[in-house]
Input
Amino acid sequence: MPEPIESKEAVTPSNTSKPEVGLTGRKIIYDKDGKPCRSCNSLLDFQFATGGIKGIGATKKEKYNPYPKDIPADVEVLGKSSWTLLHSIAAKYPEKPDTKRQQDLKQFLTLFGSFYPCWFCGEDFEKYIKKHEPKVETQDSFGKWLCEAHNEVNVKLGKPKFDCNLWKKRWKDGWEEDP
Ligand SMILES: Cc1cc2nc3c(=O)[nH]c(=O)nc-3n(C[C@H](O)[C@H](O)[C@H](O)COP(=O)(O)OP(=O)(O)OC[C@H]3O[C@@H](n4cnc5c(N)ncnc54)[C@H](O)[C@@H]3O)c2cc1C
Output
């Protein structure tokens, strides 16, 4: 069984018939058992690697269904939802947390990385935490630390950095109305 591989050197099963690159142009990521990783790839690439998946959604719209046949999250849906949760936690984090709360948050972040379904994303997040200790002393210090952690991933994916001075407007207070 191959060792876990970081995103930068993502899986390259060149000795098999498995595709290495998906339709998005990104490398296809495989789980440690060799199967395409649904929560590590975009839906398009996952479908490409698996030769198509069933159950993308109901085709007939007969009557309202409160639970349509939604499908499991791909790397983007999972990522957006997860960042929303993390930044929203920062927005609700106390201005002056006691020591216990600070310790709990650090532990949560480590466990979050370890349980994150996109395994290489989680591993990179855990490495980031080890290198850059979470700043959990105040709400603002944590909000900015998290913003920088998110920016690290943005840069890795070739996206622009977010201005971390604006994290509270985006995730807590909202933006002022245009004049
Ligand atoms: C811990 C973690 C690690 C990840 N690692 C990877 C990875 O290795 N490879 C991979 O392909 N995907 C990874 N992802 C997913 C990736 O970061 C994105 O979530 C995904 O690509 C969808 O991007 P998006 O454009 O919808 O916006 P997202 O990056 O999900 O951002 C959502 C919203 O947050 C706001 N925002 C953007 N940047 C910041 C910031 N720095 N601070 C505050 N707010 C911000 C913007 O309003 C944006 O619309 C990871 C996600 C998480 C939670």
